[in-house]
Amino acid sequence: MAIYNSCPICNNSFVKEKIYTDKGHFYEWLTCEKEHLKFSQVIVDSNKLDTFSITLSLNPLIRVAWLLSTKEVFIAKGDLNYIMNHNSNVNIPYIEPDFSNYEKLLNKIKTYSLFL
Ligand SMILES: [Zn+2]
Fold first, then answer.
1. CB half-sphere exposure, 110, CA atoms < 13 A
2. Whole-prediction pTM
3. Which of 49, 65, 71, 84 could disulfide-link to 53, CB 3.0 to 4.6 Å?
């Protein structure tokens, strides 16, 4: 899976944030802020794609995240602090993160989120 150089949904350039860990590794958050933080990707040590996430709704906050190393997808609801503490994460079956057809991807996610 390729690292995106620009937002795969709207082609906007990313806002970059680098976070160093205590073990000398670093995470880069690349976020498209054009559409209310709709898309972000996390890269580890410049070259390893770790996570994709999209925001489905701002109020209430609903985010979908793909953990690429373990092929997990989860939907998180609630405020950001609640989500970061993983209290509200619900795993759904793996869906390929194909952003080339965003509407189709959203429809697949919505099908699963109906059961939450
Ligand atoms: Zn975008």
1. 8
2. 0.84
3. 65
